[in-house]
Amino acid sequence: MAHQRIRPFNTKDTYPEQNLDNDLAQAVVAAPGSTIYLRGQVAQNLDDAVNIGSWDVTEQTHKVMQNIQQLIEESGGKMEHLVKVVVYITDIRFREDVYRTMGQYIKGVHPVSTGLVVDALARPDWLVEIDATAVIPHER
């Protein structure tokens, strides 16, 4: 059984200002459907890849976490299945706002987490990016 691709896209459509042509997906559900790997999520709409137009890191983090929740649900999971997040921020001063906002979505879930401060993300107006992995438990 091939892996299930959720919201496939091509980077030439997502990043028209860049010379790219890669076939990617927002999420991949590994066969037989128990592990969900999410693409790093940023503050843009899933349907049209349009940025939310905010330089506020809290607003960006809300959009990122909403995307993560939506993709996990579209993949057949729930937020309680989230097992790991990797958080990328472009300024150490954003850390508390990002983690406080992220915490609203993962209260009681207890995923493992790695946080990194990076020089930049793929677009200059992106302040935070979070990639995530969820595992849907097998019924016993």
Distinctive features:
29% strand; 24% helix; 140 residues; alpha+beta; 60s Ribosomal Protein L30, Chain: A; single chain; 6 strands
Q: Explain this structure to me?
A:
It is a single chain. By secondary structure, the protein is α+β, with helices and mostly antiparallel strands. The protein has one domain: 2-Layer Sandwich (60s Ribosomal Protein L30, Chain: A), CATH 3.30.1330.40. The chain is 24% helix and 29% strand. The protein contains three helices and six strands; from the N terminus they run E-H-E-E-H-E-H-E-E. It has a six-stranded mixed β-sheet. Strand 2 and strand 3 form a beta hairpin. Helix 2 packs parallel to helix 3 (95-106). The longest helix has 18 residues, at 57-74. The radius of gyration is 15 Å and the shape is globular. It starts with a strand and ends in a 5-residue tail after the last strand.
CATH superfamily: RutC-like
> What is the string of SSEs from the N terminus onward?
EHEEHEHEE
Radius of gyration (Å): 15 Å
Helix content: 10-25%
Number of domains: 1
Runs in which pLDDT lies below 50 for 5 or more consecutive residues are: none
Class based on secondary structure composition and strand pairing: alpha+beta
CATH architecture: 2-Layer Sandwich
Shape annotation: globular
- What name does the CATH topology carry? 60s Ribosomal Protein L30, Chain: A
Largest beta-sheet details: 6 strands, mixed
CATH class: Alpha Beta
The counted number of beta strands is 6
